[in-house]
Each structure stands twice: as structure tokens, then as C-alpha cells.
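As a warm-up, study this chain.
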Amino acid sequence: MPGSGVIGGGEMAASDLTEIAAGDLPSGEHWILRAGGSGADFGTFLETVHPDGRRDEGGMGGPPLWPGSIMNVYTGGAGSGPRRIVVRADPRVARVRVQFASGERLDLLLVATWPDRGLAFFATLLPRAAALASVTAIDAGGQTLEPQDLAGHELAWQRFQRRAGGPGN
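Now compare it with the structure written out below.
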């Protein structure tokens, strides 16, 4: 059922979250970013609605920001369709730079804020075969606030891809 993904050890359904941003891709996918929850278990989910009507989603739970970090990052995807990146960040973050294994970069711009929680949100859908190297939080002045290596995310994605039948899904 759409919106029935569970985060935070089964304590919160994605359908319980508030829609905070949405958009469309030239390829026909529609995306919806949802967030909400408590200070101990705050969820952020990115749902994809495909041109054929299929829906899938993925995201993260946990504290709004992990202690000592200004950015929580989720990468993943479903058995087919695009790959997701969702970032929950401190409001000082103006953009998030995605570094691909190929050396290419993509700057994610702010898609939503949650002032009561002191959070900024960034999200995108990427081609399935996109190989990620890192993400970096950057402030409005262009200064690096926090880099995060995505080697562990990439290894997990490659394992998932093998189980799902490869990058061409």
C-alpha cells in the first residue's frame, strides 16, 4: 500500500508524515517528500510515483540530526526505478554537493525547511546506475560545513542491485 513504509523500528508509518515538498521530473516521475515525528524518532521519506502509477518510497528515521553532525543522509531505491538521496540538515546548510564516483558533481538545493525543528531538507532522484562517492554540506558563503563519505552507502546499494537483478531495472 502506498505510504505504508515504516521507519524507526516500526513506530511510525510514512503515511503519518507531513508532505513538505513535491516535484516532477522530465522523465515523468513525481516525487513527494514527507517528514515528521518526535525528537527521538523523526522520519523523512521520499516517495516516487512512476509514470505507470507504481509507487515506492524510502527514507530514514532517528533523531532529527545525530549528535555532533549537521547532516543525516539516506541513499537507496526500490527494485526498479531511480535512486534516491534524502538529506536532513542544520539550517546553516544552503546546499548539498553530491560527488559521483565519475568525478562529476551535483549541487542539491533546498527543497523545504522545518523551522520548529531547525531543519533543512534536500532530496533528489538519480539514475539507478549513478555511483556515489560523497556528499558535502555547504553554507551560503560556500564554506564546507561537513563532508560525508558514502562508501558504505555505495557498497550497500551494489549489494541491493545484485539481489534486485542489476542496474538496468
